[in-house]
Amino acid sequence: MISFRCSPKADLKKLVQGNNEFAFDLCRRLAQKEGNIIFSPYSISNALAMTYSGARGETAEQMAKVLHFTLGQERLHPAFGELITDLQKKEDKDRPCHLHVANSLWGQRGSPFLDAFVQLTQKNYGAGLKEVDFKRGSEEACKSINAWVEGRTNQKTKEWLVKGDVDKNTRFVLTNAIYFKAGWKYLFPDDTKEAPFAMTVKEEASVQMMQSHRRLFKYHAGSDFEMVELPYWGDLLSMVLLLPRKRGALAEAEKKLTAVALQDMLMRLEPRQGEVMMPRFTMTYRVDLVDELKRMGLVLPFGDKADFSGMVSEQVFISRVIHKAYMDVNEGGTEAAAATATVGTALTAGGDFFFLTNCPFLFLIRDNQTGSVLFLGRVEDPRT
Questions:
Q1: Other Cβ atoms closer than 10 A to 300
Q2: Predicted TM-score (pTM) above 0.85
Q3: CB atoms inside a 10 Å sphere around CB 266
Q4: Longest C-alpha distance within the chain, in Å?
Q5: Burial of 268 per CB tally in 10 Å (0-12, 13-18, 19+)
Q6: What is the tens place of the pLDDT at every residue in 248-286?
Q7: Is 158 helix (H, G, I), strand (E, B) or coil?
Q8: Do 365 and 375 meet the contact criterion of CB atoms below 8 Å apart?
Q9: 252-259, long-range: CB within 8 Å, 24+ apart, which pairs?
Q10: Among 124, 157, 341, 349, which residue is least crowded by beta carbons within 10 Å?
């Protein structure tokens, strides 16, 4: 019998496709609430994938369905390892951008973690087991985890875990941290000016608006969104801005935005001479994703029927999925960071264009080589 196996690159492509589908599923959920949003779908998928490696039975099936993990366990985790390796290639002092990814497993000292689980997370995610004592010193354990995350996100995710996130019943915390910093390929000149930004059809605010020189950008005007790609120096990564065609219709357009729709628009991008105006903004966003994931159909991991018998030989469930993200977009470029923890507890336009983002818009940062969406967000009020 001849055995056919997919190549690592084919698995990587399938992994990224599934991760991006989950990204927009989650974005539509988070977008139901008003306000700015910034999160790293890659970080969330990565942290939950480490947890998934210890899931069994119906718990694993449910996680795979909601997270769009279409590869089997034996291929999914090596594919994540391949993705981490590809992303880490951008983390080089001689390169024009910095992208650093780190994972870690924090486990209760003396808990019976299975060797196979520890080895898998170490081999594919670089998540070495760090033993702490949640039972007798949950606050000290929390400080240690926060210090680790802060150190790997250039101090941009301070107080990531807060009081109550871990306690004496915590058995593990699986963490992912991602840090990104890059300068624009085409810098915005130092002539930022105040300009109106229509937060709603009736409310305007004065914001600091950056304006590019007339340059060749990739641009597409679709039925729901105008899209422009702003490359970072080196063309390894880029920010994509999505502006609704109709003012005040962002919520309606968001509902139609999927990974497939995004890929279709990206394929339609064409070089056009134009100018881009966008607000300068800084934002921080923190959320416990448990309720949102439950609404998406992921229920079993968060209750007493959770099966993580491939991780530890005691009954545990996920009590928290904490995510915090930071982003600063200015004339020079972008700095962004995010961290995710799963806490386990016992029991086209013709010719020229002018792209003016003077009303709520979406944005994402993507790795141009793998297509992975690293950060995704919405700006409703650039002042906050």
A1: 21
A2: yes
A3: 17
A4: 69
A5: middle
A6: 778 888 888 999 999 999 999 999 999 999 999 999 999
A7: coil
A8: yes
A9: 253/224, 253/225, 254/27, 254/28, 254/31, 254/362, 254/378, 255/28, 256/224, 257/24, 257/27, 257/28, 257/224, 257/225, 257/362, 258/21, 258/24, 259/17, 259/20, 259/21, 259/23, 259/24
A10: 349
Tokens, residue 367:
């790795």
Residue 376: closest CA among 368, 366, 367, 364: 364
Please write down the long-range contacts of 380-384, taking CB distance under 8 Å and 24 or more positions apart.
Answer: 380/34, 380/35, 380/36, 380/199, 381/35, 381/36, 381/197, 381/199, 381/205, 382/197, 382/207, 382/208, 382/279, 382/280, 382/281, 383/205, 383/207, 383/281, 384/36, 384/283
**One-letter amino acid for residue 268 of the chain:** R
The token duo for 24 is: 């927009």
List alpha helices for the chain, DSSP H: 8-30, 41-52, 57-67, 73-88, 115-125, 134-152, 250-256, 259-267, 290-295
> How many Å apart are CA 12 and CA 9, to the nearest integer?
5
Strand 37-39 to strand 373-379: parallel, antiparallel, or no bridges (unpaired)? antiparallel
Distances (CA, A) of 258 to 18, 64, 262, 265: 11, 18, 6, 11
Residue with tokens 């000016």: 193
- Quickly list DSSP for 13-46: HHHHHHHHHHHHHHHHHHTTS-S-EEE-HHHHHH
Cβ distance 345 to 322 under 8 Å?
A: no
Kindly report, residue by residue over 103-132, the tens digit of the pLDDT: 999 999 988 899 999 999 999 999 988 999
Least Cα distance to 142 among 175, 169, 165 occurs for 165
End-to-end alpha carbon distance in the chain: 62
Which neighbouring-strand residues pair with 346?
Answer: 316
Residues in the chain: 384
Q: Would you state the structure tokens that stand for residue 135, as one six-digit string? A: 């039972």
**Chain mean position to CA 372:** 9
Instruction: Please say whether the beta carbons of 262 and 35 come within 8 A.
Output: no
